[in-house]
Amino acid sequence: MMLNNNSKYYYLLFLIVLSGFIQAQNTAAGKIVDDRTNKEISGVDIFINDSNKPYATTTSGNFSVQSDSIIYKLKFVRKNYTLESVDITPENANNLIVQLSQAKVSSIDEVVIHNERPKYKNKKENPAYAIMQEVWKRKRNNGLDKFDTYTYKEYEKIQFDANNLDSAFMKKKIFNKLDFIFDYADSTARGKMALPIFLNEAIYENYGENKPGKKTKKLLVAQKTSGFQDNQIVTLTAKNLYRDINIYDNTLNYFDIGFPSPVGSDGFSTYDYNLLDTISVRGENAYKIRYQPKRTEVLAFQGYLYIDTDNYAVLGATLKSTQKININFINGISTELEYDNPDENTFLPKKFITEIEMTPFSKKKTSKSIVAKRTVDYSEYEFNKPIEASVFTRKEEEYDDKFVEKDDAYWLKARPDSLSKTEQGVYDMLDKLQQTPKFNRIVKLYETLGSGYYNITKGIDLGPIFSIYGVNEVEGDRIRFGARTYFTRNDPWRIQFYTAYGFKDQQFKYGAEARYMFNRVNRFMIGAGTRRDVMQLGVQLTNDDGIMARSFASSTVFARGENASLSSVNQTNVFAAIEPWKNFQVRVDGTMQSIKSANPAGFNLMYYRNGDLRKTVNDSHITISLIARPGAKFSQTGIDRYEHGTLAPTIVLKYTRGIEGLFNADFNYNKLQFMFYKPVLIGSWGKTLINFEAGKNFNTVPLALQNVIPGNQSYSLAANTFAQLNYYEFVADTYTTLHLEHHFNGKILSFIPLIKKLKLREVAFIRGAYGALSDASKAINVEGFKYSAPSEHIYYEYGFGIENIGFGNLRIFRVDFNWRGNYLDRPDISKFGIKAGFQFGF
């Protein structure tokens, strides 16, 4: 099955076992006055927490409210006054003085307030349309691009809360000897319990230069995490949930899924807009526009836009997902955005708050969930001041763990707002939990499921546990055990090994590799390894030379037809790699290997060399690889890094030189290969995955060293392979392949009654390959007559898939239906096939 990095989803299961409860405030009282005259005001609507209905309307300046739920916020609304929101704490609950400010007079002649969605004959009759037209006409750009240089400070706070927990859940046996955590819990507006379980604070200093050359640097100068500092799963989960967004873009990226922006120039194709009022936002007159999707089944937002009445700049916006949001593990998303507008053409981010509610199974509002909240404050902007060139140079100390360690005095000064009482308690609670053996056992269990490795003692992990069992035609049932060194997430060195045994061929296999990194800045590292194993070659064109790279040998449990085309590989590799520039790696590999058929009776790799018949290919080659990942983000600085989810492309250029005579190698040859992979958001229509590969062998080599167009005879999903090709059906000296796969995110199926309730998503794909195979390359192999390249026509496949199959929030199963487009007259082919598998993603 196709398995992606799924650590964040396993960790959600761990978070849900935590809960808590403390008594909180459910009454409030005080006085409401005019902020200029100090006179009492009556006729004020009072809203409790986030309710859309007023609790009461005051008949005098005094008020008193009481609720069965916990009151943590009150909102005060009166005509001709700006809305006032007050956070409620035990200290201020019964002596509130609420000052309301009179709203500024708007420049528009008349405002029609609509509480219901109005009906218009056409969009031009809608007054909101005229306003949005002005916004599009004066579309603003990020102000950072207009200055020669700029600097600013960024404060980021990420908090996870276990939500919707009750007293019955608290009494479960799992909390024996852990009940002290409930001292740190709080209550929600619905009367349920919420337990803060993770808090990460970070301070960044951002530097940019637009002239004479474009340079940027985001320097992490301080970080504070509530426990889990060495837990690769939790830290990756926290950082991996969020993307930077620009409200003026047509498409907003959440979880690498495209949502149409309500401020985008094509917003009216997705949203209905309703002009509600004019209000004052931070001293500026603003139109308040409510927007909501025309169809609730699509991935879209609802909320409010605040547009400056003079220059039509976006002062702020709220974005909230609909109740029918169709994203795995997600119950809801909400974002609040604030912008500064220094001039007519630009904006600057001021404050972003994003809250994500996650549950592993059910989408019910009452389900136990994790609420992940990220707050980012942007401040201390400075422009056109000289910046030393050395600022943009990466330095060794920046990658030291101690570089970001700061004392409490630093954080008191650095935070734009002080932490709440519950936020302060998170640090203390997690420190205590880590001293509890039972808690550490729970963490260890979920770390094992997430990483695939089980820690047996300090510095030693067993695994990967998901590779223990496999089966193939040569080995029969196959058992594999492995281990690695692991001290911290930032280890500069690592040793890995495995051993495997096939019960049919009764042979032991093994592999081992050691790597060491000398410098964290340019990531200069060296490594060496060796392996002897049975492998399925010909399932990847641009392959990884590393010894511990994933082998396809034991992946096929169920397959169409017989797969006898397995190879016995004895390989030794040494390599050196360096990143002279960020996200650009230069790697040099030296490889010595011998390859022969693992099943001579069913798969012939014999070839002619100087008139002699040979069954083993001896090969020694050097490979130079240039690997670019522009825009990729990583969490750690050690020899192994955990990558954040991004839309970053992967670009690989490889040159391989075979050297005859070196360690008895049989052939001189030259090979050039190129690969480009990129996910692309196509607005509200979903995401396209593009994978293009091309390559050429400039010399004649036997089948074991040739380019094989990747087939897939299993019934499982396998990325960048051809579902209806047999293994080794097409072999090419020169090749190009293109895979296009588009995920519609339910855009089409949401129109179909009844079907749309299943929340299925559609996928469409087409794959093509073209190549050539010389007569010399055919003649060198004993059975060369069997092999050919797709040179007459471009070989192609097409089909569609249904993904998001499952229940509740757990929808990780996918089924593909594949058709072979041509070359239909060949024997033993499959014209149609079904593939299925799990794909862990939002």
From TrEMBL:
Signal sequence extent:
1-24
Could you confirm whether the keyword Signal appears in this record? yes
Cite the entry's keywords alphabetically. Signal
What InterPro entries does this protein's entry cite?
Answer: DUF5686
Q: Which Pfam families match?
A: DUF5686
Keyword Signal attached: yes
Q: What is this protein called?
A: Carboxypeptidase-like regulatory domain-containing protein
